Structures are given as C-alpha cells and as structure tokens.
Amino acid sequence: MGVDMRWTWFNENQSDEKKNGNPKRRLNPLRSQKKLPKQFRDDDPAWMKLGRVALSWVGIVLAVILIMYAFRSTDETEYEISFTAFQQLLSDKKITEATIKKSGLTDYDFHGRLTQPMDIQTASGKTARNAVRVGLTLPYSNIDDKLIATWTEKGLKFKIEKEDSLWMNALVNIFPWILLIGVWLIIFRRMQGGAGGTKGLFSFGKSRAKLLTEGMTHVTFQDVAGADEAKTELQEVIEFLKEPAKFQRLGGKIPKGVLLLGPPGTGKTLLARAVAGEASVPFFSISGADFVEMFVGVGASRVRDLFEQGKKSAPCIIFIDEIDAVGRHRGAGLGGGHDEREQTLNQLLVEMDGFEQNTGVIIIAATNRPDVLDPALLRPGRFDRQVVVDRPDVKGREGIFRVHTKNIPLGEDVKLEVIAKGTPGLSGADIANLVNEAALLAARQNDKAVNMRHFEEAKDKVMMGMERKSMIISDREKKITAYHESGHVLVAKFLPEADPVHKVTIIPRGRALGVTTYIPIDEKHTYSRDYLEAMITYALGGRAAEKIIFNQLTTGAGNDIERATEISRKMVCEWGMSEKLGPLAYGAKEEELFLGREITRTRNFSEGTAIAIDAEVRRIVTTAMKRADKIVRENLPKLHRLANALLEREILDSEEIDKLLRGEELPPMERGTNGQGQSNDDTKISSEQPEKAKPEPAATLPPTGKSRKTP
Questions:
Q1: How far is CA 565 from CA 55, 100, 309, 584, in A?
Q2: What share of the chain is helix, strand, coil (3-state, %, to 5)?
C-alpha cells in the first residue's frame, strides 16, 4: 500500500483512510527531524535573547526610579519667581534664609524660604497660594562684597554651595538599589540553576541526564571488539527502532530493558557509547549516583522527570550507568536500608513497568555487581535481556588490540596475535592502557614506530608493575630474592600440571621485590584438582628454596603462603575436592548488600567438622610444601644456575630459563653493573654447597608476589 509500517509503532491510532484516491503520505518519525522538548531547544536568535535581557534591565531601572521617587522626602514645593518679585520680597524682608548654589561658571541658583506662608506670583504669571519656598536663577556673574552687604542689611541669612551634577545625584540615589537588586537577581538565578549551572535549588528534583543526538558521538560498533554477543543483542535493539515492522509482523515486541553485566573494564560503557552513535533516536545518558541525594524524595522526582523527558522524545534510549548505586536490594544493609535509595528504586520500577506503559522508551543499564540488584528490577518486563560482557578470549583480545592500534604506527616486527596470546585475563581497558604505555615508551625513546620490544616492556609494566630500579637493596636481600624467585621457576618447570613460566625478575616491581609470571597455554574456565595442587606447590617453591639455601625463613613468602592457604581452603569448603570431607560446601556466606561485600561467614557445621577442615587444609598445604622441597633438593645445581643468572641479568624470559635448565650457557652480556648499581661479580655465590646464613631480623619490605591470579 505504500505505507511505512514503522509509523504504526509510534501512533497505533492512525488509520489508512485515503484522500482523493491516494493514501495519505506519512513521514517516518525515525528519520524526520523531531521537535525536541523546550528545555533542549537552542534555536532562538541571539538578538531575541539580548532583547529580552535589555527589556528586563530597563524595567529594573524604571522600578528603581519609581521607588526612589516614592521614598523622597516630602518637603514643601518650591515655586520659581521672577527677579522683580525677588527684589520686592527682599526689600520687604520677607525672605528669612536662602541657599545659593553655583550651577555653572557664571550662574547662581537661589533657593529661599519665606518668613511665613503667603500668596505669590510665579514666573509664569500664575498665583501660588500659601507658598513657603521660592527659587530663581540670579542674573549676577559674581557675588561680591557689595551684594553680600545688601543681603545682610535686609536680614537675609544665606550660604553658598556648589551644586552637584544631576547625573551624579541620580547615580548616588539609584546605585544602592541597583546593587541590591543585582545581588538578589544573582541569588535567584543560582537558585534556579542559571548562570551556566543546572544544579540550582529550583532544579533540585530535575533529571541530570545528558541528551545525545545523532552525530554528537563518533563511537560506533566498529570501535568495539571482543564482545560479539553483546554487540549482536544491542544491534538488534537498534534494528527494531529503525525497522519495527520487520519484528511486529510476527507479533514481536521490543525489549523494554537491556542490562549489561560484567567485570570492570570490559567495555559496558563503550557499548553504550556505540549504541548512542548508531541509534538514530535521542539517547539520554545518566549515572545511577545522580539519582541519590541526602533528601528523601529527590531521587524519585529525578526519575519521574527523566521518564517525562523520554516520553516527549519517544522513541528514545535511556542509559543508566552503574545502576547498582540506585538498584540495590531493598531492606538490606545496616540499619534496615536506605529510605532515599529505596524510594528512588520504587519509582524506577514503576516507571519501567508500572500501571502506565512507557511505550517507546528503552532502558539500557550497566553494572559490575548484578548480585546486589533487587530481584524486582531484574525480572522480565523491566530488563528483558541480561547481556554478559566478560573478559575477552584470545581472539577478542586480538580484535581489541587492532582497534586500539588503528591510529598508531606499528613496526614490522609487531605481531598482535602473539601479544594477545601473552596477555590472558586482561580486560579491554587493560589492553587500551597497555597500547598507550607502549606508544608513550616509543615516544620517550624518539622512535618513529611502536615496535615489539615496546609492547613487551609495556606488558611487563601493566602485568607486573613498574620497575623500581632506584630502590636500594642489600646484596644479601638480593640473593634471597634471586633464590626465592628461582625456587618458583624450578618447581613450576618440574610440575606437568603447572602453567608455563613466562618471565622472572628480581627488579622490584610494584610492591614486590621480585616477580614470576606464568602464562597458560590455552584459556582456562574450569580448574582441576591437580592444577590447583600444582599452583599451591609452585607458590611454596620460593619458601623451600630459602629454607634449603639459607637455612632460615623470611617474610618474602608471606603472599605465597596466603594464596596457598586460600586455594586449599576453597578446595575443601567450596569445591568439594577433599576425599575425607566429601563433596560438601561448608560455611554459607553472609553478605550485607548495603556494604556490597562479604563481612561474615555462617558456621553451619560442628566443632568436629571444623577441626577436620583445618586438618585437611593443613594436609594439602604441607603435602605441597614437601613436594616443592623435594623438587628443589633434587635439582640444586639448576637452582644455583638460575639464581646466578638472575643476579647477573636481573630478568630472564622463558627461552633463557629453558637454556639454563638444559645446562646450556647464555650468550654473554656486557660487563658492568646490575640494576642496583653494584658489581655483578660480588653477587655470585658458589653452587657447591648451600650458604650457612646467620639469623637476621625480619625484613620490613613487602613480600614478593606473582601476577598470577587465584581462580
């Protein structure tokens, strides 16, 4: 019929009546220029705005003048008389006092007071009854002694003053009023949210959402990688807005809400920006924290105002970032909840799917804490779709690297797929930071392109922390750190279940004196018991090497012991990996949603079970410690070679580690000083027998750590 079916979604009451034998021509509201609400219009000519301001100030000045005249002193009326009448009154001694003001170079104005009220004739010929004050301009160019003597003889008391300027008098009288009214206007405008601000008293309950129209953002789905499923879900929403007839012909309805879930830095807000760039409808953006205020009811008012703006601009999309700030579970938290937040959430629930339908308003929200959201907010009808934006896999990381290196000159040796394989667990934000660090490093070195070595250094900085070469460490602490990290490497190399060692360094990075990093061969999503036991074993390899070589214990293994204990306790209490205790979960978590974290754990088992749990955790850790000790004792020469190479080079990669374990010599490096500015020859130790160290006080430096995360 030639009728665009997209129009029926926005105005279902439109009919298909024909006029003059032809169907009515209807414009597509999605493509036509839609009149925005008044608060978003900015098409008034500048001269109209200036005219309104000028008229306002003219009215203020007139009001000031009227007020000034209304509060003037009610003195007697002064009548202007002729010089002849003045001489007659003066000779009859009917003028008792006068004030003479000089108004110009040769002019003198006479203002006199009569001895008593009387009828006089004014200069215009009229008769003034009961006049008290008279005035005229004297025809004298100068008031000399003779004239003064004459006036004195007639009993006239007078004084001579210089007359002020008329404009000066007006300014003096008007200025206080102008100042008072100006201060009042400034205060009033700030209360209204004027003067460039939108946070005034009278706009306290107004929404703070920012309106983005087509062309205001340049981010599209071409700039998003590593989240293909999320892109597909959101592209379908945009496609529904553009072509609703395609979905409505089979009875489909547009989703009312889409909730983006995922860890921080995975690109949830970036996806929202892409939606704003792709959608040809108004896009409102607001943070969940913008709803919550100290006063109860303000957040609910802002929610109502936000949806009113959305209805006026329908069809539109409203994006709420960090919705967990306002959508937390009601009635939770210390003290029984938060009235303002709960009232705001109630209003949000009603607006999204209440008695009144909000047709044409789509909600997109993002959060990294879906576990704290209220169940009523998550149900279908409010958030019909929950899209998980997880950390990217190796293919996704490669795509993200390509997006972020699009405008960066790359060297010929750069292989993004290799870098992507070497950065497991990094989010999109981490990858963007890594690419930026590599570009900054190349710029500092005055290189014309970003090469592979820049990416490697940037990767080490992001994954292991910044090098602290200026940190002063004694020779003995450096030896202990070298053997500690060599113990991790040695044990990991002799465990078939362990991840391959990527790099080891004894240069302090971040809060650690030394770092050993492991990179898995493939992406892991589940972990076996053998793999977890291997993690515990090579985590304790550093403590085993310290004990065997130096015959003492240091605080350097503190982080390793903590990680080993945490993994073993989870194996027993959460993952059911203990043969003795069986596949049971011990200890239910108690989480205060108001705090957003676990603060207690319910003990739902007996005292005997608690003793058995502790014994099983201790067994797993001590077994792993014995296993690590055995590997180190059986490979002491290799341990010494690794430690000496670390003391000499300070950093060893996987290829160099493999050569040392095979007994091969590393290529010589330039003789000089190590990273701490000391001779390398002084830090080597003999591999014939362990060193017997004297007891020393515990170190106060942070313990060594590894970038490998606990599952």
A1: 77, 104, 54, 19
A2: 45, 15, 40
The predicted model scores a pTM of 0.64
Cross-strand bridge partners of residue 257: 363
Check 278, 342, 485, 533 and give the catalytic one: 485
| Rounded Cα–Cα distance for residues 693 and 284 (Å) | 67
Verify whether residue 412 is a known catalytic residue.
no
pLDDT tens-place string over residues 107-156: 788 888 888 888 888 888 888 888 889 988 888 878 888 888 888 888 88
Query: Using the 8-state DSSP alphabet, how is residue 374 labeled?
Result: -
How far is residue 686 CA from its own chain's centroid?
Answer: 55
Q: Which of 350, 349, 330 is nearest to 340 (CA)?
A: 330
The residue with greater pLDDT, 706 or 76, is 76
Spatial distance between the Cα atoms of 207 and 300, rounded to a whole number of angstroms: 10
Which H or E run includes 517?
Answer: strand 515-518
Check if the beta carbon of residue 263 is closer than 8 Å to that of residue 390. Answer: yes
Q: What span, in angstroms and rounded, lies between the C-alpha atoms of 38 and 48? A: 16
| Helix, coil or strand: residue 605 | coil
What average pLDDT does range 660-678 have in this prediction?
66
H-type alpha helices, 590-635: 607-634
Contact 242, 280 (CB under 8 A): yes
* Token pair belonging to 536: 């515990």
